[in-house]
Design brief:
three-stranded parallel β-sheet, Rossmann fold, single chain, two-stranded parallel sheet, alpha/beta, 7 helices
C-alpha cells in the first residue's frame, strides 16, 4: 500500500504507490474485505506510540476515501521481545507470522481464511497466509524483490507479482465471492 520508509514516524512520510488507491477500490468494488495486518515494533522500541499508529491509519483512510477506496479494518502488533518499552517487550501470537491479527479479523469481520488472501512483501507474510489456511501472494515492491531471490524452505506463494495492483487483479480473477 505504502512505500517502505523504515520506521514511519511522521505522517508526511506516508507515500502511496501510484496504484494503491485503484487496487484497493477494485477489491472493494469486487466485494472483498480489505484488512491491513502490520507489525509495528517501533512502539515497543519507543520510536512512536500506539496513538501515532492510529493517526497513520486515519491519514491513510482519508487519502483512500478521496479516491473512492477503503480499508475495512486495521490490526497491528505493537510487540517486540527486545523492545525498550516494558509493556510491549514480549513474545506474542499477534506478531507476524503469528496468526493473532488474522484470528482477530476472522472473529471481528466474519471472514473465512480459506476464501482469503494474504498479500505481502516478505516470506513471513506468505507463511502467515499458509498458517491460517489462506492463499498467499508475494509482491515485489518493498522487500519483496529481495525476498523472492531468497526463497524460504517450505514456504511458497500461490503467485509472485510486481505490486498490489497485480495482486488485486489476480485475486479478482481467481476468487469468486459467494452471492
Amino acid at each position: 500500500m505504502i512505500e517502505d520508509v523504515g520506521y514511519l514516524n511522521a505522517l508526511d512520510r506516508i507515500a502511496f504507490f501510484p496504484w494503491t488507491v485503484d487496487a484497493i477500490r477494485a477489491l472493494n468494488q469486487a466485494g472483498f474485505a480489505v484488512v491491513v495486518v502490520t507489525n509495528q515494533s517501533g512502539i515497543a522500541r519507543g520510536l512512536f506510540t500506539e496513538a501515532f499508529v492510529g493517526q497513520t491509519h486515519r491519514a491513510i483512510d482519508v487519502r483512500l476515501s478521496a479516491g473512492g477506496a477503503r480499508v475495512d479494518a486495521y490490526y497491528y502488533c505493537p510487540h517486540f521481545p527486545g523492545g525498550r518499552v516494558t509493556a510491549y517487550a514480549r513474545h506474542c501470537d499477534c506478531r507476524k507470522p503469528g496468526r493473532g491479527m488474522i484470528d482477530n479479523a476472522v472473529r471481528d469481520l466474519g471472514l473465512d481464511p480459506a476464501r482469503s488472501v494474504v498479500v505481502g512483501d516478505t516470506w513471513g507474510d506468505v507463511q502467515l497466509g499458509r498458517t491460517v489456511g489462506a492463499r498467499a501472494i508475494l509482491v515485489r515492491t518493498g522487500k519483496g524483490a529481495v525476498e523472492e531471490m531468497r526463497p524460504r524452505n517450505g514456504v511458497a506463494a500461490d503467485v509472485v507479482v510486481d505490486n498490489l495492483a497485480a495482486a488485486a487483479g489476480w485475486i479478482i480473477s481467481k476468487l469468486e465471492l459467494k452471492s
